[in-house]
Amino acid sequence: MYILQKKMRETMPQTPIFSSMLGSSCSGQVQPDMGERCGDPVYQDGNLVSGSLEALIERLVPTMDYYPDRTYIFTFLLSSRVFIHPHELLAKVGQICIKQKQQLEIGSEADKENGTVKKIISQMTQNLLMTLSARSQYQEIKEKFRQPVTDKGTILKNKPQSTQKDILSICCDPLILAQQLTHIELERVSNIYAEDLMQIVSHMDSLDNHKCRGDVTKTYTLEAYDNWFNCLSMLVATEICRVVKKKQRTRIVEFFIDVARECFNIGNFNSMMAIISGMNLSPVARLKKTWSKVKTAKFDVLEHHMDPSSNFCNYRTALQGAAQRSQTANSNREKIVIPVFNLFIKDIYFLHKMHTNRLPNGQINFKKFWEISRLIHDFITWKQVECPFEKDKKIQSYLLTAPIYSEEALFIASFESEGPENHMEKDSWKTLRTTLLNRA
Known about the structure:
Elements: H1 2-11, E1 42-44, E2 47-50, H2 53-58, H3 70-79, H4 86-104, H5 108-145, H6 167-170, H7 174-189, H8 194-208, H9 220-241, H10 246-266, H11 269-279, H12 282-285, H13 288-291, H14 297-305, H15 309-328, H16 332-335, H17 341-354, H18 366-383, H19 393-401, H20 407-417, H21 423-439
Antiparallel strand pairs: 1-2
Helix pairs in contact: 3-18, 4-5, 7-10, 8-17, 9-10, 9-11, 9-20, 10-11, 17-18
């Protein structure tokens, strides 16, 4: 499919992608205009909104007086996998191309050229199937060796070892740590491709139909990126809870607040949200004596940006501002946009669930896929930004390999730092100690 897209790009003028294709929402109730056949493409305000699969495939192929723009090519090739296998699509496009040549040319020379075209298409199809198969096998092998995101540490002892490092001994500059987190984020999103994100739709369709589709690739890269978010949140909580002295805990809390603020300024919203999530975990949030010493004004501002009310309206406003800055930026530093990944996935999920793939007349609801592909195109554009910050291997190694406590270990560390304050906490602490004794 990518070979096909490349060939078409080489021979067609290029038009801007998603310049102003749609309004703010897509309707699942678009109906064909009167007099049009049910399979014909349907337009609203000059934009394609629906059509049969056959008609949409025909629009992919240039003619003497028509060529598809890049927006349509990207959207169709991305969304077509919901309705047809890539190699089947390639075969259909090839058939249309050969038919067009036959209509334009006659004679033995034309037959000879069509035979050549068929051989080329056959070879392209074989290459495509081999590429898809190889990628599937690679993902399966990768999954077997992927370490599960569970407890990387052990149950906290009464006191940490004096030689045990903490984040401040590795990096005491919030800006530098935020830059290293941005490095890690961009490295991880570089492994995510448009088709991985589109698999979300295919996988949900499979679940909705209560059947297992063998052609649905498992989204390992998406899971790995989501696991990174969880690891960072737990690392933040671990760094705070395992410190015995209140003064040092306060310093670490304030340090992570500053790191989150620097992430916001950079445009790294995913790390920012992970840090805030870590500090809002119950074992950290319950440390009232520690928080009483923290200057929380900056933290309040960060939480305001990530306020979940009105569908994270404040965050979305900040994200839009970062996206606009990225579009007009002259440096990679200003181009960085790393959205909160789980919210981005939810946006795709709700777009998919709110609007049907097909309309009541059987046509494909292409306006829905315009919207989904526009989201995915933005993400793919942002992920291609080259990180402008110098890489610090020592800091990154700590962020990626430092032991993190399980939820149970975090509560133990938290209660040892600041004892239980109510009956519920006392019962929890009692249960945890009993569990420890039984294990001993």
